[in-house]
Amino acid sequence: MFPRLAEESRQLRDLLGQVHDHAATVAEGLADRPVAKPDQTVPGRDLTADGIGTDAALRDFADRWQPGFSGSAGPRYLGFVTGGATPASIAGDWLTSVFDQNPTTATDSSAVGFEAEALRWLADLFGLSPDHGASFVSGATMSNLVGLALGRQWAGEQLGVDVAEAGLAALGELPVLSGSPHSSIVKSMAILGMGRKALRTVPTLADREAVDVDALAAELEALSGRPAIVVANAGTVNTVDFDDLTAIADLRRRYPFWLHVDAAFGAFAALDDEHAHRVAGLDAADSICVDLHKWLNVPYDSAVQFTRRRDLQAQVFRNAAAYLGPLGDNPDPVHLTPENSRRLRALPVWFTLAAYGRAGHADIVRRDIALARRLGEHLDASPGYRLLAPVRLNVVCFTAAGDPQRVHELNAAITASGETFLTPTVYKGVPGLRAAFSNWRTTETDVERVAALLDSLAT
């Protein structure tokens, strides 16, 4: 064995203790850490022949690279829709590395059964029936990709074509209909060979991002019975708008389509009695995307994909190899997602759900919604800003009053301040900014600091 590796195997407890102390110090300082750290030039160094050891590597990382890392896990990182990591999920994530399980087959450990328990808990959290099977994937993009792949296979089934075997050319055109599709939908269509041009954007309701169901019905009618995929939204990225999922699902009585719901973070509305009605009809979907490193507050990368058609999932993603054995009636996870090997993503999820239960995570959702409203009310009353949409859930979408083009300059100043981080957008043709609240650490004090910064930049 390489001498340094042998030595460190004997010193493992002390080395992990050093990393523990270092990580705890970082976590304890997140509230004071600069929220954004634009890319900086860091002097590089060459790889050494014999290595420098874990202790020296930790010091080198802390000296050269750590200062440039953002405070994305902290309370005032409001860009994208980014959660933090609860203490329990961090514990689970560390154990994920220690056990280093590859939960793709049940032949060698209980990891697959453990994962199944975590998935059942998630289905219950979102009010889904046992008809929905579930699989862990890396994020919303991969979850949406899996859902579209299942829809593609279903469309082939309607036309007597096994797309996974014969290829997409045997299927022909497969339209994808959506009112306000996330960019990951279009990316997934390109990856799956369906083509970006197959997307048909359906008109939305006035001053909304929610699809006009009558317009959707007209688009489906025009297909003359040919199968399609409908992507509905349970929480759009700009304004957290929700399609009428029940009304869309009812259209299947007249038209053949696969209903995929992108509920990346909107699914968490189910945890709040005031907003649970927004996801009414979610259980009727054929496939559902939920991103867990958003509002569940587990570390990257973690998401879940739900579907009623596990059989189609196995048709698409089955991995034929003698050492994996037959598919059977209950396929191993290796046959259900694009990855053959992956981390045991269930551990952080299981730990945070076990530690805080439904009530704890519902409290995070309710607090974040209240904080978004608070910032929205402040900006609505400010002469320097204008809300571009009502604050429906946890995102505040706004622009500079009088001169929306000033948003770019404003965003650069916000990022440079290190006080908070927002992401730019364009809503209904108007440049704007988005403040997304999804971190368990965020408090009213943080909102006051963000509001004070925005006030100072408005003048």
Question: What can you tell me about this protein's structure?
Answer:
- It is globular, with a radius of gyration of 24 Å.
- Among the domains are: 69 residues; 251 residues, Aspartate Aminotransferase, domain 2 (3-Layer(aba) Sandwich), CATH 3.40.640.
- Strand 8 and strand 9 form a beta hairpin.
- It has 15 helices and 11 strands.
- It has 459 residues and is of the alpha/beta class.
- The chain has a 7-stranded mixed sheet with strand order 1-7-6-5-4-2-3, with helices on both faces. The chain has a 4-stranded antiparallel sheet with strand order 8-9-11-10.
- Pfam families: Pyridoxal_deC.
- InterPro entries: Aromatic_deC (IPR010977), PyrdxlP-dep_de-COase (IPR002129), PyrdxlP-dep_Trfase (IPR015424), PyrdxlP-dep_Trfase_major (IPR015421), PyrdxlP-dep_Trfase_small (IPR015422).
- Belongs to the group II decarboxylase family.
Given the structure, what is the number of helices?
A: 15
Contiguous low-pLDDT stretches (5 residues minimum) are none
- Order of SSEs: HHHHHEHHEHEHEHEEHEHHEEHEEH
Quantity of strands, as a count? 11
The SS-based structural class is alpha/beta
Mean pLDDT: 96
Amount of beta strand: 5-15%
**N/C terminus separation:** 64 Å
Radius of gyration: 24 Å
Protein name: Pyridoxal-dependent decarboxylase
Family: Belongs to the group II decarboxylase family.
GO molecular function, one term: pyridoxal phosphate binding
Modified residues (N6-(pyridoxal phosphate)lysine): 294
